[in-house]
Target: GNAT family N-acetyltransferase
Amino acid sequence: MTDLRLEALSASTAAAANSLTLKPGQEQFVQPTTYGVAESDVKPSSAWTRVVLDGDRVVGMIIGTFDEDNAEEELRSAIWRVNVAADAQGRGVGRFAVHGLADEARSRGLERLTVVYEPGGDSGPEAFFRALGFEVVRETQYGDHFAALAL
Ligand SMILES: CC(C)(COP(=O)(O)OP(=O)(O)OC[C@H]1O[C@@H](n2cnc3c(N)ncnc32)[C@H](O)[C@@H]1OP(=O)(O)O)[C@@H](O)C(=O)NCCC(=O)NCCS
Model:
């Protein structure tokens, strides 16, 4: 895929972004328990949401959250969601989306981008984040990994 681009969410892409079909077994990894518990601590104004378009088709979406003063370390400069359509996976869409978010973090003067994910499982995203250079900082109290990418 050479024609990927990121766009802000619009009326015409929102429905497609919200109904991306993942591979069987992946749904359980979309929101790790740590993020589920922290959801009410995320300020809506801190969200940075983009869809990934391949031509006219929405093939992925990413939501970042930027809130440097948040009491929760996990919510200061983070990937909150990243999803890629099942039939578009394995072709660099997820990497493209995360790099776009990392560029945004850099432009805000931030020195790292973090993520929380549930480790293990054949369908989980652990290998993806490791391939992108994220390093595990610690395990959360719910057994998720809190990992960071130096920018
Ligand atoms: C995780 C996810 C976003 C990856 O998207 P993707 O477009 O398939 O990933 P990419 O094609 O950009 O892969 C980038 C790198 O990660 C590696 N990778 C991705 N998924 C992998 C897997 N399941 N196993 C091993 N390596 C994997 C790729 O091989 C590639 O490495 P390389 O460039 O060294 O070859 C996608 O699988 C997904 O939407 N999963 C369900 C939702 C989810 O778990 N989100 C994360 C919540 S925290």
